[in-house]
Amino acid sequence: MTTTVKTSIKEFIAQRLPEYQELALDIHEHPEVSNYEFYSADALIAQLEKEGFTVKKDVAGHRTGFDARYQSGKPGPTLAFLAEYDALPGIGHACGHNLFGTYSVLAASALQPYVDELGGEIRVYGTPGEEGGENGSAKGSFVREGFFEDVDAALCVHPAYRYGKTTASLANDPVDIKFYGRASHAAAAPEKGINALEALIQVFNGINGLRLHLPKDVNIHGVITDGGVAANVVPEYAAGRFYLRAANRGTLNEVYEKVENIVKGAALATGATYEFGLFQNSVDDVIVTPSFDELFFAHAEEAGVPQAEIDVEEKASLGSSDVGNVSQVIPTIQPTVSISDEYIAGHSEEFKAAARSTKGLNSIAVAAELLALTAIDLYQNPELLTQIKADHKASLAKGN
Predict the structure, then answer these.
(1) Among 44, 349, 390, 393, which residue's beta carbon has the most beta carbons within 10 A?
(2) With 0-12 CB in 10 A as exposed, 13-18 as middle and 19+ as buried, what is 210?
(3) pLDDT in tens, 158-179
(4) How many helices (H) and strands (E) does the chain have?
(5) pLDDT-derived band of residue 207, with 50, 70 and 90 as boundaries?
(6) Is residue 315 over pLDDT 80?
(7) Per-residue pLDDT band at 1 (split at 50, 70, 90)
(8) Is the pLDDT confidence value at 302 over 80?
(9) Contacts of 61 (CB under 8 A, 6+ apart)
(10) pLDDT the model gives residue 145
(11) Burial of 311 (C-beta count, 10 Å sphere; 0-12/13-18/19+)
């Protein structure tokens, strides 16, 4: 990459930064949960259209999803930047997705002049509901609907306490369990009732027994969302919501089947009927391609990030992200950039404040520059992209 290209990208980002900082603050002030990110999606779409992208709304079965494209008209790689913009219920943007979306949009916009020259295509996929919820984890839908079939690699950056490489995270099947029984007076005629709550309690007990015979990477946690209305009425309906997690999809598929068998057994024991299944997209484990992350952080110092500030340890997250679904099909990175000088926990008030702090807003330039320079490397060097694809294939075969 020539010094002129780097300088031009830096200048573009510096010129646009105040505009994107205002955009991030605007999204922060309008937090929206999965399937309701109308304001946030429209704000990012308006910016993309202003930057020359052609945008389709309501895609992949998600009314707040979008597909933005800039085509050079020449043959070349197709890279997709992933944009998230949903907030958490109640607390708002305590995961920093107001920054996440602006990172990708600014990086994609900075690439346009060079893609015109080099060939290929830039895409920004607006993927709702990373935090889950109604019609959540949209990246799974984008994968299922073929949005990545003609994409060579995917890039995104997440705000965090420290700079760090992409981490492996757990596959997650979010399931609802519902039991249907029969109401009756709990004291006068209990024999006439079928206790749906008792069936659900048996599921909790069955899962607790199952834990003794599961691999160490498996994590199951749940809550009762409906347990009846009155103590003197046999509950005719009860419901619970569980997250089933494991380090890889193969293990999780086995866990899913075992939990469903527990549900079937509880229904049989109590006489209740049941419903069991996903309440949103399933989430796959993240496949890490180390060489892709190394390329990203090779530009750290020129983006003003001292190597000493980068956490180089290989880590695995105990959470889940639907970026994993994308990583199962193409090389994908989701490194982190720092938005705080002191430790902040995700999904906290401190993280929410950092996502609109001076350092948080300045991280837009850092993340966009790292993303754009990484992408330019892939556009300019087909052999490098080919090697990263081969490395991804090897990581996928190895699995988590």
Answers:
(1) 44
(2) middle
(3) 999 999 999 999 999 999 999 9
(4) 11, 14
(5) very high
(6) no
(7) low
(8) yes
(9) 135, 141, 145
(10) 98
(11) middle
Q: Does the pLDDT of residue 312 top 80, yes or no?
A: no
- Residue (of 76, 69, 52, 77) closest to 124 by Cα position: 69
Question: What gap in Å lies between CA 236 and CA 228, rounded to an integer?
Answer: 7
DSSP state of 382: H
**pLDDT-derived band at 2, boundaries 50, 70, 90:** low
Which is nearest to 220 in space by CA: 211, 228, 212, 232? Answer: 211
* Token digits of residue 143: 């994968």
Residue 233 three-state SS: strand
Q: How far apart are CA 90 and CA 109, in angstroms?
A: 32
Strand partners, 219: 245
Token digits of residue 55: 């945008």
Q: Which of 77, 96, 78 is nearest to 87 (CA)?
A: 96
**Residue type for position 289:** T
**Do 184 and 234 meet the contact criterion of CB atoms below 8 Å apart?**
yes
* Cβ pair 175, 279 in contact under 8 A: yes
How far, in Å, CA of 83 to CA of 367, rounded?
13
Is residue 305 left, alpha or beta, with left meaning phi > 0 and alpha meaning psi from -120 to 50? beta
Question: Structure tokens of 40?
Answer: 């946030």
User: What's the pLDDT at 52?
Assistant: 96
Q: How far apart are CA 235 and CA 312, in angstroms?
A: 53
DSSP secondary structure code for residue 368 in this structure: H
> Pick the residue with more confidence: 315 or 238?
238
Residue 378 has pLDDT above 70, yes or no: yes
* Rounded Cα–Cα distance for residues 50 and 363 (Å): 22
Res 313 pLDDT > 80: no
**How far is CA 336 from each of CA 158, 228, 340, rounded to the nearest angstrom?**
5, 44, 12
The kind and range of the H/E element at 264 are helix 249-270
* Lowest-confidence pick of 56-65, 129-138, 209-218, 301-310: 301-310
| Cα–Cα distance, 44 to 364 (Å, whole number) | 14
Contact 385, 333 (CB under 8 A): no
